[in-house]
Model the fold of this input.
Amino acid sequence: MKTNPNFIIFILALGYMIDFFDLTIFAVVRIPVLISLGVPEHEYLKVSSLMFNSQALGVVVGGVLSGIWGDKFGRMSAVRLGILVYSIAIILNTFVTSVPMFAFMRFIAGVGLAGEFAASITLLSEILDTKERGRASGIIYSSGVIGGMLAAFIGTFFAWKTLFIVGGIAGLILLIVRISVADSIIFQNLKNKQHIARGSLKLLLLNKNSLRKLIAFLLSIIPFWFMAFFVNFAPEVAKSVGIKETINQGLSLAIYFIGSFFGAYFFPYLAKLTASRKKSIFSALFIMLLAITLFSLGNLLTIQLYYTILLLIGLASGYSGIFMVFAAESFGTNQRNIASSVISNLARCSLIVMNAFVPWMAGQFHQIWVGLVLSATIIFTLGVIALFSLKETSYKSLDFHEGEAS
Done:
């Protein structure tokens, strides 16, 4: 079994690239998919929501299952199983001819993809020195960003079925390579201690200390998905705040990804420079809030400035990698994978709530930007308060376990 850290980082980075590719590619080829399924144009929005929500539900279910599996049987075992389920699902997706079956396969693909990022960060946190974990998280997350860029770029040049099949085959090839990757020594040693409960959802939710940390981390990562709203609906938001020029959705996504790529390395570097995960994440939240407050410029808001806001949002969103390292470091080895996976995937699904909450809040005020800034202030305030309640983990040994449920 291979234990070379650089090799493992490379293999896990490729996996997250495929993960992000799939999550992005459906948004890119959504209309051709709907046309091939015979969906009438007036039902595009309704059916698209069904597809996205099916995938989101799969992500929640898969996040819990993958987390439990990773703590009970191994982080790499969870990663291998996830990529297998995803690869089969996305290939089968090309053969279905009805909306319900397509939505079901998106659900299964979501189940498979759910644990990829959390299990990867968990494994890297356990095999790397504390000074190297941030850099590795940057490589993993930036690889996902590259996957998203590839999906956005090539999605318009190839048939959607071709892209799905290529993604599935790439996953199966990666699965074969991953068979040779070993789990961390820390986890292997814990497996021999049969008296310690591993991957217990009951322990995670009923132990007061674990539950408190879980809630705090969820509140701290939700701002990341709050920001995604402004990217996904960039043209609509721009129009609502008074920009007369047409905002290009593809360009908006590209600018966001560019910012995210640099943020993926900037915030881990800042965490290393300050010897603090929390200070790095605080900085990201501050940049996010600053970006949203720029909407208050009103008539001074130009199309160039709007794209600059998206760049800042992308930059700040790069904190996701170091954030997941922080989460992994905060939980014991017996609960590390399930905690990281639940945090990552429940937060992902908060995007559904944001898609309803932000427009509602904006609609409560005569000037749209007031609602946008107010909703941002509420979400970021909760995130900052939650961060204050968490203990710093820089230079912390990960060889410990969570106590029994109270």
Observations:
- The CA atoms of residues 92 and 105 lie 7 Å apart.
